[in-house]
Amino acid sequence: MLSKKINKALNDQIAMEAYASAYYLAMASWCEQKGFQGSASFFYKQAEEERMHMLKIFRYVNEAEGHALSPAVPQPAHDFAAYNSLFETSLEHEKKVTASIHEIMKLASDNNDFRTLNLLQWFVDEQLEEEKQMQTILDKLKLIGKDGVGLYMLDSELGQRASVPEAEE
Ligand SMILES: [Fe+2]
Ligand SMILES: [Fe+2]
Predict the structure, then answer these.
(1) Distance between Cα 2 and ligand 2 center (Å)
(2) Is residue 149 part of a domain?
(3) In the chain, fewer beta carbons within 10 Å around the N or the C end?
(4) Mean pLDDT for all residues in the chain
(5) Rounded to the nearest whole angstrom, what is the distance from the C-alpha of residue 65 to the centroid of ligand 2?
(6) Ligand nearest to the CA of 131
(7) pLDDT range class, residue 169, cuts 50, 70, 90
(8) Number of folded domains that form the chain
């Protein structure tokens, strides 16, 4: 049985993943408005993945005899200063998520809750991937600068990336 404290922390994490999903959806919409079709697909896929993360924790909480709560999701920002800022904001948010996962792991470890630790281990690897992915895109954007052709190519690359099915799960 989950401790009350860990149950609460996991419900907060559920809300955080739901918010990330909503945020990526807003980014997908912005990209579609601006004609970045490939990036829109990329962010739609990110939004789906975050919902999957949310469900992974949600299902676990109830399986572990806790009580999973469907979260209230605040409306995210819909306007972004520039294309680059989508990825800067994403990386920033992913880092917050990573820190939050680490906090809950600390709590689980202090409580000898090995099942929760095991669940969160999956998220540690996932967060590493997510941060790396956003950082790589930001590095490319630095190289590209204001070159339109470069941006066009990056947008297509992100679109292709979104069409590759995930190997995991
Ligand atoms: Fe996530
Ligand atoms: Fe994420």
Answers:
(1) 24
(2) yes
(3) C
(4) 95
(5) 26
(6) 2
(7) very low
(8) 1
Give yes or no for a contact between 3 and 113, defined as CB atoms under 8 angstroms apart. yes
Q: For residues 136 and 64, what is the distance between their CA atoms, to the nearest angstrom?
A: 37
Alpha-carbon gap, residue 57 to 46, rounded angstroms: 17
State which residues form the domain around 17. 4-163
| CATH value at residue 117 | 1.20.1260.10
For residue 132, is it within any domain? yes
Residue 168 lies in a domain: no
Q: Residue 13 Cα, ligand 2 centroid: separation in angstroms?
A: 12
Distance (angstroms) between ligand 1 centre and the Cα of 97 equals 7
- C-alpha–C-alpha distance, residues 90 and 143, integer Å: 19
Question: Per-residue pLDDT averaged across 84-110, rounded?
Answer: 98
Residue range 46-69: mean pLDDT, rounded: 98
Classify burial at 22, counting beta carbons within 10 Å of its beta carbon; exposed 0-12, middle 13-18, buried 19 or more.
Answer: middle
From ligand 1's centre to the CA of 8, what distance in Å?
17
Q: What is the pTM of this model?
A: 0.94
150-165 residue pLDDT tens: 999 999 999 998 887 7
Instruction: Give a yes or no: residue 39 inside a domain.
Output: yes
66 Cα: distance to centroid of ligand 2 (angstroms): 24
- 10 Å CB burial of residue 57 (0-12, 13-18, 19+) is buried
